[in-house]
Specification:
This protein is of the alpha+beta class. It has helices at 14-25, 34-42, 44-58, 85-105, 113-132, 144-161, 167-172; strands at residues 7-8, 11-12, 184-187, 192-194, 200-205, 212-218, 223-230, 234-237, 244-251, 256-264. Among the domains are: 3-82, no CATH class; 167-264, Immunoglobulins (Immunoglobulin-like), CATH 2.60.40. 38% of the residues lie in helices and 20% in strands. Strand 1 and strand 2 form a beta hairpin. The longest helix has 21 residues, at 85-105.
Length: 265
């Protein structure tokens, strides 16, 4: 398969979109053919399709991705591009439903209520007997100072994780506006750092001559909030966000207009 076979007319076909999504998951975007990279940089339609397929694959636990070496030769892709995407999704959903049904109804040896109560009583008596013995140490297990250090380290790791960039959005962060629409983002600028107490103002120059939404997402691409049916060119977000990296989108019902990011410190 050559690069031309990854296009239908002026846009990426399903094979081309899937190849790009594989590269995003494997952090191997540099192995995608330059022709495709240049096209996606300029094509809003293909960017939207890549984002949509990425979100679908991300939520599919049975989805497998190519190893990074196969991205150079698309014909080695383990994804069967001859099968439409909606059929692959339907098959994955059916498999999950089947497993859930088997786990829920496939086992007949379910303990009765009396058995559960009896076992609970026995466990309680055994615990009491053990606590009454003299084999327990006088001091709690572990060192309090070491426990405090471990807890602090976990908290620091958790905070650091909230600032880790989301690769898919980082690759598409400089999305160009659709043809004929000219707006300039005023606030927040890309990478702006705001305190939790500072007002969060979304504003831009230029008009969007239709109703649109602002979508706020965390650094795991999970939706934090959705502000619907906006008119005008500015809005103050009233809620207080936790510290971390956030992405925000301006989008209509069927089109992404802008993708940016900011930090709450």
């Amino acid at each position: 398969m050559n690069e031309k076979e990854l296009f239908n007319d002026a846009h990426l076909n399903e094979a081309g979109v899937t190849l790009y999504v594989d590269a995003l998951f494997l952090s191997a975007i540099e192995k995608v053919p330059e022709t495709i990279l240049n096209h996606v940089e300029e094509c809003q339609k293909c960017k939207n399709e890549i984002l949509e397929l990425y979100e679908i694959c991300k939520s599919d636990p049975n989805h497998n991705f190519n190893d990074s070496s196969s991205l150079i030769t698309p014909e080695k892709s383990r994804l069967d591009h001859s099968i439409p995407i909606f059929l692959r999704i339907a098959a994955g959903i059916l498999l999950i439903i089947s497993i859930t049904f088997i786990l829920r109804y496939g086992f007949s040896k379910i303990p009765s209520v009396n058995t559960i109560i009896s076992n609970s009583t026995n466990d309680s008596q055994q615990t009491k007997s053990f606590n009454d013995s003299n084999d327990l140490p006088d001091k709690p297990f572990g060192n309090k100072k070491n426990i405090d250090i471990k807890n602090k380290s976990k908290e620091q790791n958790y905070i650091a994780a909230n600032f880790k960039a989301y690769p898919v959005f980082e690759n598409l962060i400089k999305t160009k506006y659709r043809s004929g629409l000219s707006i300039q983002i005023l606030t927040p600028k890309e990478g702006t750092k705001l305190s939790q107490d500072a007002p969060l103002l979304f504003s831009w120059e230029g008009e969007i001559n239709e109703i649109f939404n602002i979508l706020i997402l965390n650094n795991k691409a999970e939706q934090v909030d959705l502000i619907k049916d906006i008119k005008g060119n500015k809005i103050i977000y009233p809620e207080k966000l936790k510290t971390g990296l956030y992405y925000w989108k301006i989008e209509t019902e069927d089109e992404l207009i802008f993708l940016g990011k900011f930090v709450i410190k």
